[in-house]
């Protein structure tokens, strides 16, 4: 549990842990994969830019915000929508995978109960955690695949 961020179940942290899940075989593979990291990060950034272009000013979809003074690598491409759960269900029916990353804000995790924060202390974090959904994002993602994802998201928003 400690080596997996203090969690027994994904995104539910009972104690404060660390990320120590790398064994010798994974380390050997990672050593080879690290040679490609810069290229993969660049491709993710290009994919994020393409998603941003595809979504444009779509009502009902809030794309990730990146301040001009940063350079995100977009390990994830996370949008926000008020109908997150229904959107996930719709995309699943369209054979489009999504993810929920960090659906419970830190202040509500058991690992941080000693800080004595309760529901309502950080209302923006609580609202956002119920709106976020991760869309497909990886270096080999094609423009056509992204276009399909974006069109299906926009179709859902339009018909909700």
Task: Give me a quick take on this structure.
The protein is mainly alpha-helical and about 160 residues long. It has helices spanning about 25-35, 35-55, 85-95, 125-130, 145-160; strands at about 5-10, 10-15, 75-80, 130-135. The longest helix is centred in the first third of the chain and has 19 residues, at about 35-55.
How would you describe the overall organization of this protein?
The protein contains five helices and four strands. By secondary structure, it is mainly alpha-helical. It has a single domain, classed as Aspartate Aminotransferase, domain 1. The protein has a two-stranded antiparallel ribbon with strand order 1-2. Helix 2 runs parallel beside helix 5 (143-159). The longest helix has 19 residues, at 37-55. The radius of gyration is 18 Å and the shape is globular. The model has no long low-confidence stretch (mean pLDDT 93).
């Amino acid at each position: 549990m400690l080596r997996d961020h203090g969690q027994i179940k994904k995104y539910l942290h009972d104690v404060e842990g660390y990320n120590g899940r790398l064994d010798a075989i994974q380390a050997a593979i990672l050593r080879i994969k690290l040679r490609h990291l810069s290229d993969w990060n660049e491709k993710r950034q290009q994919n994020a830019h393409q998603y941003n272009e595809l979504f444009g000013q779509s009502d009902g979809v809030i794309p990730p915000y990146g301040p001009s003074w940063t350079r995100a690598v977009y390990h994830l491409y996370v949008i926000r929508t008020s109908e997150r759960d229904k959107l996930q269900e719709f995309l699943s029916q369209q054979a489009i995978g999504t993810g929920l990353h960090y659906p419970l804000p830190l202040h509500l995790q058991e690992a941080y109960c000693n800080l004595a924060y309760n529901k309502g202390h950080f209302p923006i974090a609580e609202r956002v955690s119920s709106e976020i959904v991760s869309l497909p994002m990886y270096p080999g993602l094609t423009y056509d695949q992204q276009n399909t994802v974006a069109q299906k998201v926009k179709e859902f928003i339009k018909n909700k």
